[in-house]
Amino acid sequence: MNNRNEILKDFREHYNSDCNINFRRLKKIIKPLINIRDPEALLLFSMLLNNNDSNIKKRLSLELNEEAARLKFPPALSALAEWYYNEGNYAKCYPLYQQAADMEEPHALYVLSTAYKLGIDGFNKNIELANEYEERAKKAKKWDFLEGYNDKFILYEPIFD
Question: What InterPro entries does the record tag this protein with (predicted)?
């Protein structure tokens, strides 16, 4: 299986299957794309690792997310911004949200819309700009962990029971 889309589809099908999620199997499926530094594969694997209690795996998750963001994959920019936001690092997160929003990434557009609408995190209230970001978000191509690019979801993270 060498086709990028087939690998991503197989990865998602295995993750979505009713059987127990086998982390090693997922890693084996996606490894060819990780090896060639495919940004979507880097982000997917990063999101898997982030749901682990191990500090080593969380650090690797951040490194993979940073690499996918350096490769200008819009959902990776937004996911990295979310990481920094959750750490309280607004100086790092909002420039990344802006970069992702400039690439029409809907999650980032909604975040910026909210920041301007409410005037939070150092943003001045600007309803006109908030509405502009919201309208762009509604039209933007969406991406999530389970579906890739789709018309339904944005930036869903995997959850392990």
Answer: TPR-like_helical_dom_sf
